[in-house]
Amino acid sequence: MANHPGDEFLQVAEDAFCRMKEPMKAQELSNLVWAYAKLGEVPGQQLYDLLMHQVMNMLETFNPQNLANCVWGWSKMETIHPGMENLRRVEHKIFVSLPMFQPQNLSNCLYGLTRLYTRGLKDSNLDKSELVDSKVSLGLPLALLKEIEKHIGRLVKGFCPQDLSNTFWSLGTLSSYQKAEFDPSEEVVLCMTDELLNRNLLEFKPQELKDIVWGMFYVRTAKENPKLLERICSAMLYKIREFKPQELSNSLWSLVKLQSETFTPNNELLDAIAECSVQKVDIFNPQNLANTMYAYAVIKHRLSDSFLARMEDAILNCVTEFCPQNIGNTLWAFATLEIAPSRQVQWGLAAEMVAKRDRFKPQELANSMWAFAKLFERNPDTKARVMQRIPTVDQLNLMAEEAQRRSPELHSQNLSNLIYSFALLEYLPAAQCIDTLANEVLKKCSSFKTQELVNSMWAFGSLAYAPSDELQARLQGYLLENLNRGDYVTQDIANCVWSWATLNHKPCTAILDKICTETLNELPMFKSKELVNVFWALAMIGRYPGDELWAAGKKALLEFANRDAVRSDGYCQLFQAHTVAVDLRWPSPLFEGVEMEAAKCAAGAAWLRVVQDVSTSSLQQSVTAVIRRLNPPPPHQVEWRTTDRLFCVDLQVEWKGQPLLIEVDGPSHFASNRHTILGKTAARNNALRARGYTLLCLPFYEWDRMTERKEDLAAYLIEKMDTAVAGALASGVAQQTVEQATEQTVEQA
């Protein structure tokens, strides 16, 4: 910036200009605008109005240098804008004067017009994506842009480094904002890139190198030049210590975005940028910090502990200045890198996210919640996870309310990511919120990709939220279409069938047939957990996989077991699938033969550990108390084990000479939004009845309703037990021994 003469001098000069009776000449006007811009100043309103009036009156006398000075100067004055009507007149004058332009005139005019145009767009409060739909034309006229392109080809060899960088930056910016209308021609891009290849890039300043790679990212055909990109990387590496914070972060961001099959930023440059960033991190602003973290996450570059520690300290120092995009990108970066920042950083970002939630764009909202969910998922202390969760319940409530309010703005990926994030965070939003989001899924699921369909289904299952029959049918229909096209991965198959089993939902035969077929076709690609989930879910649904898949799947599961690739919870699922296969008399059990004996023992042991880990709920205690107050109290046992020791039942009562099992089903046995039992409860009921037991299930909502109304709980319980026993006797059900009901014994387990 030029030497500043001082505020007092500027005020005296400004007063003098305003008192001048004679209008200034074209060169005097343009030089004055240029001078204010170089000084980083903006003239007062009176002088500015006078200058604009005289410029417009004298416009026809302006030569290329005058035009370039004015346009460039206006673009540097951030707080003022000449207005679109005046700008259109200037554009016309530029158009007719282009044949007389010199290289610097052309680059400065294009640069200035681009800055003024993008500022006008921001002032209009229109997003880039909304520009095409806007009835207000804020873009540069296409005819002018095409004419400028012709003269770039004429003048490019006379461009100095700054002219080249300004032109590339301008073309990239215009392409990003006007991509529906303008994409630089291949001819002009080729002449620009060829000229750069012929130049000594070591003569370019850091800002010029930064602007070139930034522009190249947005200019489609410029991306396809790995030779030039490699040379730019070499020049950047040579000059890296001269780079300022914004030049470091923006260059890194652009290079990472330019990554392709033919170009990847070399590790030496990436490490050098990281080293320089650490040295200058104290003067990084929030945008620099967020862009740096985001770029390294995109390319998944390994970062040192010292780099991360310095970045976290810098984030904490200015976190209150983070805008929504900075918050979302920073969180996304940590989650993508699978690095959990300190809890102080997480608390700070969470607080800013909640405070600024109404300013978040839909994608920023979804990305931030997704990132917090992924960081939460990585917490190894499962018992402390919910208590230590960030964001807190109160913060999540506010974010859920914002998601509900903004739900019409959420497109498919935002919508599925938000619901998926709530599920990962083990947080169930208020009924009105989750119902609203589910309704948006119903409206928009036709545009969902496979992963978005499956993530939504998995989230509903994890939250124990039962979608409407219409929504389930729509999700299944679109998923079946995608499966038929081969548009899926193995995790999609595992997650969708798991969600159905969890919610006790019976999907249509067509999609189950397809699931079994594709599981068999892709069996070698399945991970251990995915295959376990598929077999468990099919058993819960009661769908026999078919002889070929059943045999091949058992072999694959045995291989996983032999490699110790099955976790304890996976073994527990497999044991449950095994008992279901026996109960339903499938052609063969899951664990069959000597080679499966070790896996069978491991699965049985995992199942028994779960059965033995029991606790008595207050609801169960309430029912037991009523049983004991009956006159006379019937013989009963609390936490009664079935003969095969595979199930622990809340109560076993001898009622009217018949053994009766009572399960007191609290809210965890039902969908969160309706009184339908979940898959695990249905499987328990089926297993107990398959063993010949008479079962009475007491739902919490009936018991609570009776309690609230202070009705006779004893009479209610007697009626329920009478009905259950009478029904069993009428149907001729006799209690079977464990040997008749299942092949497992305690010793085998």
TrEMBL record:
<dbReference type="Pfam" id="PF08373">
    <property type="entry name" value="RAP"/>
</dbReference>
<dbReference type="GO" id="GO:0044528">
    <property type="term" value="P:regulation of mitochondrial mRNA stability"/>
</dbReference>
<protein>
    <recommendedName>
        <fullName>RAP domain-containing protein</fullName>
    </recommendedName>
</protein>
<dbReference type="InterPro" id="IPR013584">
    <property type="entry name" value="RAP"/>
</dbReference>
<dbReference type="Pfam" id="PF06743">
    <property type="entry name" value="FAST_1"/>
</dbReference>
<dbReference type="GO" id="GO:0005759">
    <property type="term" value="C:mitochondrial matrix"/>
</dbReference>
<dbReference type="InterPro" id="IPR010622">
    <property type="entry name" value="FAST_Leu-rich"/>
</dbReference>
<dbReference type="GO" id="GO:0000963">
    <property type="term" value="P:mitochondrial RNA processing"/>
</dbReference>
<dbReference type="InterPro" id="IPR011632">
    <property type="entry name" value="DUF1601"/>
</dbReference>
<feature type="domain" description="RAP">
    <location>
        <begin position="660"/>
        <end position="719"/>
    </location>
</feature>
<dbReference type="Pfam" id="PF07671">
    <property type="entry name" value="DUF1601"/>
</dbReference>
<keyword id="KW-0496">Mitochondrion</keyword>
<dbReference type="GO" id="GO:0035770">
    <property type="term" value="C:ribonucleoprotein granule"/>
</dbReference>
<dbReference type="InterPro" id="IPR050870">
    <property type="entry name" value="FAST_kinase"/>
</dbReference>
<dbReference type="GO" id="GO:0003723">
    <property type="term" value="F:RNA binding"/>
</dbReference>
